Fold this protein.
Amino acid sequence: MDTLNFLYLALGIGFIILVIFICATLVYLIQILRDVTKISENVKDTAEKVNHFILQPLTFMKEILEYAKPVIHAVQSKKDEVRENVGEFIKKTKKTKKHH
């Protein structure tokens, strides 16, 4: 066997080994991509559950509070008004009791 044939044989064997390693790498890459697909589906499902069970009720409560805010402010102002009227009434009754 002369050196040129040995060189061709060595290059052929090296190329076959390289192809085997590339095929093994592709198999592992395919498995990793499948796992990533499963993980992304799980993340999507989790995000939908969070949206359904947490964000939608919070949005609903925010809308209710937006409608209730004017009512709360009106009740608060009436409460303050009543408090002032009661305070004035108490002052008047104390003044009238002192004069008697």
